[in-house]
């Protein structure tokens, strides 16, 4: 469930980035329109939420890493089989 929320937030970040670029191109030079600024605010809040979810996932153990060098040394018999 947590990983699905993270993926959804990442997709929303990319969509917000695209909308900000679109508003930047459409509202070029118009100082009365603040759509690009609002898009930045949405993107910032999505990024903070994503960061909080990742920190929560790591703290609770739902997210982790599976690096080969974290497993410790392997016995010689396993090394010979490779």
Count of individual helical segments:
3
CA-CA gap between termini: 36 Å
* Average of pLDDT: 85
**How much beta, percentage-wise?**
under 5%
Low-confidence stretches: none
Reported for the largest beta sheet, the result is: none
- SS-based class: mainly alpha
Spell the H/E element sequence.
HHH
Radius of gyration: 21 Å
Inertia-based shape? elongated
Question: Portion of residues in helices?
Answer: 55-70%
DSSP E strands, number: 0
Structure description:
- The chain has helices at residues 2-26, 35-60, 76-81.
- It is an all-alpha fold and 82 residues long.
- It has a domain at 2-27 and 34-62.
- Helix 1 (2-26) runs antiparallel to helix 2 (35-60).
- The chain starts with a helix and ends with a helix.
